[in-house]
Amino acid sequence: MNTVKDIHVSVDVGCHAHRVAVGLSTGELIDEFDLAHRPEGFKSFFDRVDRCQRRYKGTVSVAMEGYNGWARPLDSLVRAHGYRLFNINNLKLARFKEIFPGAAKTDRIDARKALELFQLQAQFKPAKNVLQELLAAPIEVDMLKRLSRRRRALVDEKARVLSRLQADLQAVCPGLLEITADAGNVWFLSLLAHSDDLRKLARVRRSTLLAMRGIGRKYAAIIAQWQKRACFAHDIAWVGPMIIEDARRVLELKAKIKALQHQCEALIDQVPMAQRIDSIPGFGPVCAAELTGEIGTIARFAKESSFALYLGMASLDNSSGKTSASKPPKHVNARAKAAMMVGVDRHRKQVPESQRYYEKKRAQGKSHNQAIRALGRHLCRVMYSMIRHDRDYELRNNDLQAERTNGA
To answer: Which of 248, 268, 288 is the last residue of a domain?
Structure first.
């Protein structure tokens, strides 16, 4: 009768194919093969690993690099199959390889290296946390992650297109940008997208202007003043259509971003963690959706300090001798950090106590971003406790009084 032994699987992720090494908890290599990134390849992978599990009766743990990268959808299939999934921390793996350099580097060697990590992480401190288990999150959290990332990508695209549009307008139609304080205004974009020839804007009637989206009497009068002095550069014939195309694209992006935001808001009502974050003054549904999606589950953080490091709100000690210094951590989720910076900045403007702390840090010589991160470090402690104990944010009595006074 075979003794029960846990099974460790290492996947060296590639673009079109992956290298797989299968070993036992005792260190013995029992299988090794190439996995094609196709449905039939995934089926073969699970058939071979299941065969090993039936033989040794142990728990299957799978480690791979590039979680949510080239490994998709294999990573989600692994968890759906009931295996434990571990992500290989690339930064810590690099440090580990510096301590134990290999004679060569191939996909086969890299696949076997993760099997060694399974053996060493429990006994050898430098190998600790190189393999990080990915705990399952509710499907609504995964949806928030995809939707918020999609929204952020569209927001970034809108900024790029709008910047290009403004540069082109300044070059071929000087003076037109001066009629608005913000080129992203819906009424201004509607004006640009009205006709297929930008030069016709100088002859648009007032009644037509008033029929356009977002243009009332005030803006119609401003546009009429510009029409009297309108001038166009010689290259308007071929640059003009580009400007019109960009204006229509920005309007389209605005509509898509708004639709994604509504979807996120609907999901927040189904996710307790998102509701707790949304209850913090200044954060709002967008920050709550982004943070919830990137955090996944609070169970992945053993303590609030690791939670703060992940959100980019904590620094690491970098002192030497009599010199006291710190350095930014590299194990940071950049998307979560960006959402925290926005949320904390809005938060301190709405909560007097937080504003006082921010001003204290500024008085100490901290920059704006440093003061925001210092305040964010305190908020991480609050958020961690809120999520763990399923409690909403609560203002202190003095802040409630100040809020009422400001409201009055």
So the answer is: 268
